[in-house]
Amino acid sequence: MTLPTSRCSNAKLAAVGGSIVISVGAITVLGVMGGIELHNTRVAAALALLETDAPSDAPSTQPSNEPSAKPSLRPSSSPTVSTSPSLQPTTSLSPSAVPSVNPSISFVPTSSAQPSTDPSATPSSSPSSLPSASPTVSTSPTFNPTRRPTNRPTNKPTNKPTPKPVSLPSSFRLRLHWEKGDFWQDEPWERWFCMACAHCSNVFDENCDVVNYCQENMMLALTECRPNQWTNAARFSMLPGNNQFNLEGDQLKVANSNLCLSLVSARKLILETCNASKIEQRFTGFRSVGEGAMEIAPAKVSEKDGVVIERCLTQHHHPRPGERIYSEICKLARVADTNLWATY
Question: Are 268 and 325 in contact (CB under 8 A)?
Fold first, then answer.
């Protein structure tokens, strides 16, 4: 039986379409298999690369042309912070040539048997902003002042200055100094009056009995002693004090005796046994021969109402024979020009 033409054409088209479908399916299967093969190849290559990069048990002898690994962008581990030295200090007295390790930063000073010879780059400690101790605050003094001074000031220096050595004859007379211009008793010519031992009835007696000998408790008075004439004037010698017993002044001793002039009151003078430890027997103002007239004054200070009174040896007003020698206020004796003595 013969098929119609239209049916034959449809059959052919169906056969061709089935072939195309079969071909597309085959191609799809081949593509999937090819992708699987390509994946397996890549995995094998990656495994081979990992085996190649794995470290060996022994280091290589040849240096690599490229770094074995790229540097990381971040440190492998965080830096350690130490509050104490990483290594114990050496006890060697000399420093090592090169430090074995870099110095660590530490706020704890290292200890050493010997002090370091070089200064540190930074101070060992920072100064404190506040004082270690607060000052005490007081509205009153620590000690109350005394109502009176603890020690009264001395009228003279505590330690006496070293006196200048005085050179005098072994014995001499003491003459009341006269110089041109003096008008004793309104007489312009030179007068000669010297010290002599005398008996006086009281301290104000101007007419003492002058004698040519000296005894203990006698006083001194004026007598005439003109050269080349006989006189009752006494001879004296000076005993240097040399600040012995820490006393100022020298002693005036009657020659060839053990009698020294002594101050027994503010004014009265008598002869007593010599005693260098008594301030009453010390006198100042002696001068060596050729140094001029002397103003002889008691070393013992005379005071009135706390005021020092300057006194010196003289007689009352213008001189006359028999007038007693006593300790008078110097300014009065200076007015009468009878305050000075000279050796003779």
Answer: no
pLDDT tens string 240-266:
988 888 999 999 999 999 999 999 999
Write out pLDDT tens, residues 217-233.
Answer: 999 999 999 999 999 99
pTM score: 0.53
Which position has the higher pLDDT, 155 or 289? 289
Instruction: Report how many helices (DSSP H) and strands (DSSP E) the chain contains, helices first.
Output: 2, 15
Q: Which residues of 182-191 are buried (b: 16+ CB within 10 A; e: fewer)?
A: bebeeeeeeb
Supply φ then ψ for residue 159, to 5 degrees: -100, 125
Q: CA nearest 264: which of 215, 216, 212, 211?
A: 216
In whole angstroms, what is the distance from residue 174 CA to residue 238 CA? Answer: 11
Cβ atoms of residues 282 and 250 within 8 Å? yes
State the Cα–Cα distance between residues 155 and 33, nearest whole angstrom: 136
